[in-house]
Amino acid sequence: MAEDLRFELAILATVQGFYQKLMAESLGGPVPVPGGLDADALRHSEHELPNTLSQMYRWLHLLDMAITPAMLRQALTPDTDSEVAEALLRYFVRRREATDVNRDKTDLIVTFLYRHPRVPGQWEQSGYGLDGALPLSPFEIALIEILADTDVPSLPEEHVQLLRRFDPLREEVGRFRDFNALIDSGIIGRVRELKQWLESSFYHPGVLATVAAYNATFGKKFDELFEKALVEIKQFGQALEEMGGTILTTVDGVEVTVEHVAAIEQNQMLKADYGSTLEKFRRVSKLKKELDRRPPIRRPLMTSAARPTRAGGGNGAAAPKAAKVAAAKAAAAPAVFQPPAVTAQQISIEEAKLRRVEESIRVFVRVADPKYRQVVPMRFFNLTLTPAEADAYGAAFLEEKSLRADVARTLIRLVSISARISTELEELKRSQKMSSVWKLHADSVVVLLDMASTATEEAGSVANVAEQGGSGVAAKEIHESVQHLRARSDVAVKTLANVS
Q1: How far apart are alpha carbons 378 and 65 in whole angstroms?
Q2: What SS3 class is residue 249?
Q3: Is the dihedral angle over the CA atoms 9, 13, 14, 19 positive or is it negative?
Q4: SS3 122
Q5: Hey, what's the torsion of the CAs at 262, 268, 270, 276, to 10 degrees?
Q6: 136: which DSSP letter?
């Protein structure tokens, strides 16, 4: 009996030493130890073991309240002695408190032991059968030995059934190829709920072994996909900053700037507790989605913007002719603006501006007198809408999955791009004497021309569907808007070719 108490006290002393070091790092100085629990007193507590143990448990419980799972995650490094981690595991399994914090800390410790075996690769060997039972994994056998002196809980049949869900979950994790897909799957919440359902059975060696194997698989995949997503976002931000821009996009109504992206610390987020930082990970996922949904740049700008489109007949030869004139003038005058390649970053910035233009026009059309709603006052000019375009901006069915909604959204897109081109051309004329500002507006025109080319192609597809569906009027309305946008694009191409 005394030997058991001495062994238990040795475990608690190891935990105390680890906690003291952790608290000292957190507070910037040593933490006073209660009388009777310092190293010297513990060596001479042979005759007062029960009282010393009781006092030690109270002291560790107090320290526990100050130590969060995130602090524990950061403290458990590859250099941490396995004996310390094993002592921590024994301590938490002995306590077996039915709280999320106690379970999360146990979760972290057992996963640490799984990821850092004493002998590399020892958990990857085949399991062994005990007394004819199903083979146990090497890690579960190791946990049984570590917790041999601990009263572990029994495992009822309903919890055995819950445990069988982890293998399919591990397979699901292995299929993720994208950070957004992982976050959207809700697997983090599902697994957390599953662990809660296990209640006190969570501290059973078989459960801990299963959970640790799942955590290791999930953690590796999560870190890999998060790092990949963050690298792409940071590259986006760096490229935007080099262009002189500051706002990447809008997430949940808040503008995300280059500074916001630069401030994201990958290691700090990954070392934090998944539960407490899940909302941050979700925001990163939303930001990634905003950037991912920008269309790829498929064509050089000056040719693509002036290319005849499928939407409507019109003067298809005028656009190529304008492009040839622009190219000839560019060759004759070296000082003429040379359009750079359009990037996804630029598309992202312009999409945010287009959404604001769409919303401002929509608000005006809905509140204006019906007699005047087709003339929308813009910053430098009045934007004249066709009746069909005004109806589209005032429509209440834009979220529908229907032909009329597709037609309305197409008209809105064409008009908004045309309005943005007109605005940037005005800005371009007013900033010719300021080279740095002029270049920013010229770059915006370049991006808008590329978007205009894509929009007119998509509009042609919608017009064809409308025509085939017997809605020739809708197809004609789209053709008319395409012609207006094409005219604006031709003016923009000529302006870029002539303005230096």
Answers
A1: 60
A2: strand
A3: positive
A4: helix
A5: -100
A6: B
